Amino acid sequence: MRYRLILPAIGFVLAGLAPLSLSVSAQDVIGSGANAFAQLGQELPSPNVYRTASGAPGHAYWQQQADYDIDARLDEDARRIDASARIVYTNNSPDALRYLWLQLDQNRFKKDSLDRRSRTVSSDRVSYRNLRDHQAVSVGDYGYRNLSFTGESGEEMPFVVVDTMVRVDLPKPLASGEYVSFNVEWTFDIIERDTVRSRGGYEQFYESDTQIFFLSQWFPRLAAYSDYDGWHNKAFLGSGEFTLEFGDYDVSLTVPDNHIVSSTGALANAGDVLTSEQQERLASAGSDKPRFVVTPEEALANEKTEATGTRTWRFEAENVRDFAWASSSKFIWDAMAHEQPGAKHERVLAMSFYPNEAEPVWSKYSTQAVVHTMDVYSRFSFDYPYPTAQSVNTWEGGGMEYPMITFNGYRPDPPRAKEDDPESAESRAAAELAYSRRIKYGLIGVVIHEVGHIYFPMVVNSDERQWTWMDEGLNTFLEYVAELEWEEDFPAFRRISNSLINETNVLDMIPEYMMSPNQVPVMTQSDSVLRLGPNAYSKPAAALTVLRETVMGRELFDFAFREYAQRWKFKRPTPSDFFRTMEDASGVDLDWFWRAWFYTTDYVDMAITDVRAYQLKSGDPDVDYPLDRDEHNRDNPVPVNVERNQAEGIVPREERFEALKDLYSENDRYTVTNKDRNSAADKFKKLEPWEQRAFNQAIEDDDYFYFVDFENLGGVPSPLMLHIQYEDGSSRELELAAEIWRKNSIKVTHRLIEDKPIAYIEVDRRHQTADADYSNNRFPSAIHQSRLSAYKSDSKKRNLMADMLHELKDSAKVNADDGKSAPLKPANGG
C-alpha cells in the first residue's frame, strides 16, 4: 500500500534516514536482542599461558609425545591379533605424573562393557541386526586378553582395567621433561564388522571364503593428557571418538604371504614384500592418472592361492596420532602422485586398495578423489603433511579415518541375472560393469570426507570425545566445498536413489532438524548428542557455509580459517580457540553467531510481516489535499448500504430538497482554505536554511519511502538478504547486516528510500541463510504453481482361505538347533 508521508515542519533531520527499530515493550526486549548479541567471554575459558585470547597457542603451550615400536601378527584362520610394543612416553607437561592412562577400545565388544550396559531403545522392537549383534558378542570372547605391562628391565608394572581404559601405575612419578619406556603385550579376537558396526574388524566374503581385515583402535594407545582436561579417560561408548598424542611409529605386520597390506606410514621394506615389477609400478606412479601396482588379475590370483607362509610388512610413520592398517588377499592396488612443490613432501602417493567386487567404480574414482581432496583441503589449510594418502575398501557403506589411511565403503551391487535366463551370463557380465548413481556419488563423497579427516582431526588434533563437531562439522563443511568443486551438480546433502536425486543443499536440508524437538545444542558432549548426524555433521557444516557465503564473505572467512588450521596443526585446539581465531583473524564480531548456532537449538526463520509505502507531502495544501482525498477514498470504499440504495433508486433527502444544502454539502474536509495556505507558508519560513534546502531537494527527488517490518520467528539472528523487485521490471540486491537485530532480536523495522516504486520485497531469494520457511519471506506474498500426481488407493486385505491354498516357495527351513532341514507347517500344525 502507498501513502503520502507527513513530515513535521520542525525537526526534519536527514540523520533520521538510518535504520529504525519498532518501539516495543520491555517484555519484548528482555532476553532477546541484548542476550543474543552479548559477548561470549563469560562462556569461554579464560585465556592463559597455554591458550591466548586471540585463539592462538600460548607461549607455554605443551603437549605430550608417545612413540611406538610394534610387532603384530595376523592369524587369518583364528581371526586373531597377537602383538607386542615398546612405548616411549615423554612428559612435556609441567606436572609430575604418578600413572598413565591408555585406551583399550577393543574392550567395547566385551559382553559387560559400559557401552553395552548403557544402551537404550526407542520402541519394543527387535531387528535381525539386533539379533546378530547380540549373538556375536555373546558367543565370542572379544576385548583384550593376555594384557601385560613391563618396564625396561622386565619388571611387571601394575595396572587396572576400567572398561575401555587402563591405568598403568609408574614405579616413581614421571617428572616434567622426562620420559618413561615400557613394554606391552596383548591379544584379541577380530570381530566381524557387520555384526556390531565397529570401526575395525573383518569383512567375510562367503562365496570365496576370503576376508578383508581392517585393524583400527587395535593397540593400547596413550590417552591424551592436556592443559584443559588433564587425562582424557572417558570410556569409549562407540560414538565420540578420541584425541591422542602425536609420536613416531615403527610397525612390523606379519600376515599371510598372499596378502597385500595398506597402512599408516610409508612402506620401509618394499623389496621384501613386492615383486620387482610391482616396485617399479609404484615408483613410476604419475600425477595424470592412477596406475595399478597390483592388478585386478594379480589380486584374483592371490585370492585363489592358499597362503604357504607369512610375510612381514614394515611401515614407518612420523608425527602421527594413531596407526591403522588393512590386509587381504583380495586387494587390487593403484597409485597416483599428488604434487605439492615446496612442501615437506613434494610428491605424495595417493593410493587405493580394493577387491575385484568393487570394480569398476573404485579404479575410476577412488584415487582421483583422494588427490582432489588434497587439492582442495590444502588450499584451505596447509600442505598435506605426510608421504601417503590411502583409501581402502573395507565394507559396504560409510567410512572411517586414520593418519594416512581411510576405510571407505560403497561398491556396485552384485548382479542379479536370473539363472533360467538364456542370456544370464551375458546379463551378469553387463551388470558387473554397471554401478548406480548412489554408488558413484556415495564413493566419491565418502573418500573426500574421510581423506579430509586426515587434516581434521588427524593433524588439527581436536577432541571428538567432547566436541564431535570440531572435526566432523568442519570436515563436512570442507567436504561440501570439495564436492561442488568436483562437479557443480554434485548431490551433496541430497537423498539419492537410482532414479531420482532430490535437489537439496545443506542450507535447505538442515532447517528440518533445527526445528525438531528432538535435539540438543551443537556444544553438547558427544555421547549425549541425540542425533549425531545432523547435530555434529550437517548443522555445523551449514553454519560454516552461512558464515563463509553470507555473514563474513569468502575473503575474510578463508583467511581466518587458514589461520586457525595453521595455528593448530599438530596441536590440540578447543572450541574457544576456533571461535577466537576466526574473530581475531577476520576482525568480525561473531559472538552472536556462535551463540545462536552452537549454544542454542534455535533456527533461522526470517519473515516480512508488513511493508508501508509513502511519498513526501509537498507542503502545498493545493497539491497535498486532493491527494489526501484520493487516498481516503481508496482506503474507505462507499458503504455497501449506499451502493444498494443507489441500485434501488433511493435518492437522498438532501438531493431532493435544495434548501437542506449548505457550505458543507459542497465542500469536504479536504477543501483548501487561505488559512491552510498561510499556515503552510509560515511553517516553511520557520525552518532552518539547511532544513529548507533538504526539504526542497527531497521534493525534487520525489523518492519513495518504505517501512519494512521484519520478524525473527526462529530465534537465530541472521543477515537479511533482500531482493527488491521494482514495478518497472528492474531489481537490486541489498544485504542488511545481522547487527540489525542487536537491540531487539525479535522485531525490527528498516526504512528504504527508493527512486522508483517497489513491486515486492523478498528475503533470502537465493537460499543462503538456512531459512526454515520461505512462505513468509516475500511481501506481498505470491501464489506458487506446482503439480500433483493422481493416485489410486490399493487396499489389500488378508484372505486366510486363499492364503492357505498357496504353494510353498521354500519347502524347508534349517533347524537352528541341529542344522537339519524340517518341513514348513502352518501355524496351527495342520
TrEMBL record:
Instruction: Name the top EC class.
Output: hydrolase
Which segments show compositional bias classed as Basic and acidic residues? 811-820
In this chain, the stretch annotated as Disordered covers: 811-830
Q: Write out the entry's keywords from A to Z.
A: Aminopeptidase, Hydrolase, Protease, Signal
Superkingdom is Bacteria
According to the UniProt entry, what is the EC number of this protein? 3.4.11.-
Q: Which residues form the Peptidase M1 membrane alanine aminopeptidase domain?
A: 440-597
**Annotated signal sequence range:** 1-26
GO molecular function per UniProt: aminopeptidase activity
What CDD domains does the record tag this protein with?
Answer: M1_APN_like
Q: What is the protein's name according to its record?
A: M1 family metallopeptidase
Organism source for this protein? Answer: Congregibacter brevis
